[in-house]
Specification:
- This protein folds into three domains: 2-92, DNA Polymerase III, Chain A, domain 2, CATH 3.10.150.10; 110-217, Roll (DNA Polymerase III, Chain A, domain 2), CATH 3.10.150; 220-332, Roll (DNA Polymerase III, Chain A, domain 2).
- 18% of the residues lie in helices and 39% in strands.
- The chain has helices spanning 5-15, 60-69, 116-122, 172-181, 216-219, 232-244, 293-299, and strands spanning 2-4, 20-25, 29-35, 39-46, 54-59, 75-78, 83-86, 89-92, 110-115, 137-141, 144-148, 152-157, 168-171, 185-190, 194-199, 202-207, 226-231, 253-259, 262-267, 275-284, 288-292, 307-312, 319-322, 328-332.
- A twelve-stranded antiparallel β-sheet has the order 13-10-11-12-24-23-22-17-20-19-18-21. An eight-stranded antiparallel β-sheet has the order 5-2-3-4-16-15-14-9. The chain has a four-stranded antiparallel β-sheet with strand order 1-6-7-8.
- It is elongated, with a radius of gyration of 25 Å.
- The N and C termini lie far apart (73 Å).
């Protein structure tokens, strides 16, 4: 079968990391499969020729390395016995004889669709801790999609899911793959144990996380003692500068203190006592709260626009962040830092 080298190479890169590729050949198409513990993914490529149909299994690393060395824009003649020809070059690929067990398609599945951007944007906020395995993915439920790692919660409403009757958890590795495969809209189906996603020529059949996702409504604060309206870009910049001085690279605290003219963002570093005033409108009680500067920088842009509203509950209560998009809700847990700061000179 004759296949575009560029199309095959692009598909292989998107499907990695994986140990093996299965390539299914027919008279009209070549389908490349990649199976991991979480999903079986496939990309269908155009193919021409009158060779015998069949399936070959090859190790992914040497196969991709070979494709990188073949000329761009070239075409590959590939046979089910592993024979590969590209121009004057030919090779007999070493084949893996053991069959690969693909994840089976869902049965009696409920169909639904959602924008691919939802999974792409939310999976980085899913937990990576195995002890909270039920948070290791993105929750798809009626009317919305959500992700949390225990410190951050992102919930995005979607009209596409208003009629969805189930609550499923898609592993973050599957979401990461779907982000690589591209496409604007995902067409999906699920039986509650397995979900299948289609985007263009790509299809992913994924095992779902077997667990109960945290109650999103209970995690979103409904009341507040202090409300701050501030420029998102100004606040993110000030928190990034304060966090840059911290001795903790992964959890750099940025401390926010309110006053009558706005707020002040400080660092918690012993050696560097930074202070930066940020114009803001503050109503309610005076507040002092610390956030992980990295977390804030990563997830606040999801709100869209530059006007940002913080609703603080006081003490160790989570803070709700609101922006111009009413569909997006962000919640961030504060950090505990010692009261050791003084006004910078």
């Amino acid at each position: 079968m004759k296949i575009s080298r560029d199309a095959l190479y692009s598909a292989a890169l998107k499907l990695r990391p994986v140990d093996l590729f299965e390539i299914e050949l027919s008279n009209v198409a070549a389908v490349i499969y990649a199976t991991t513990e979480h999903h079986t993914a496939s990309v269908t490529l155009d193919a021409t020729g009158d060779g015998s149909p069949g399936v070959l299994t090859v190790e992914s690393r040497p196969f991709v390395n070979l494709l990188t060395k073949l000329p761009r824009g070239s075409f590959i003649d590939l046979a089910a016995d592993g024979a590969l020809i590209c121009g004057a070059f030919s090779v007999k690929l070493p084949l893996i004889q053991e069959p690969v067990e693909r994840i089976a398609e869902p049965e009696k599945a409920e169909a639904f669709s959602l924008p691919a951007a939802l999974l792409t944007q939310l999976y980085p906020f899913a937990s990576v801790e195995e002890t909270r395995y039920y948070c290791n993915g993105v929750s798809i439920q009626r009317g919305r999609v959500a992700a949390t790692d225990g410190w951050r919660l992102v919930a995005v409403a979607s009209d596409d899911l208003n009629s969805f009757s189930q609550s499923i958890i898609v592993h973050r590795e599957t979401c990461k793959l779907l982000a690589k495969l591209g496409g604007e809209q995902l067409f999906a189906s699920t039986d509650g144990k397995v979900a299948a996603f289609t985007a263009g020529a790509a299809r992913v059949v994924a095992k779902l996380i077997d667990g109960t996702y945290p109650d999103i409504d209970r995690a979103i604060p409904t009341g507040h003692d202090t409300e701050i309206v501030v420029s998102a870009s100004a606040l993110i910049g000030a928190m990034a500068r304060a966090g840059a001085l911290s001795q903790s690279r992964n959890q750099p605290p940025a401390v926010i203190e309110t006053h009558k003219d706005g707020l002040t963002v400080r660092s918690d570093a012993f050696d560097f006592m930074s202070s930066e005033d940020v114009p803001a409108t503050v109503t309610g009680l005076a507040a002092r709260i610390a956030f992980n500067a990295n977390f804030a920088r990563q997830f606040l842009p999801l709100l869209g626009g530059d006007e940002l509203t913080l609703k603080l509950g006081g003490g160790d209560a989570p803070t709700k962040f609101c922006g111009t998009s009413e569909n997006v809700t962000l919640v961030l847990m504060p950090m505990r830092v010692q009261h050791r700061l003084q006004k910078a000179a």
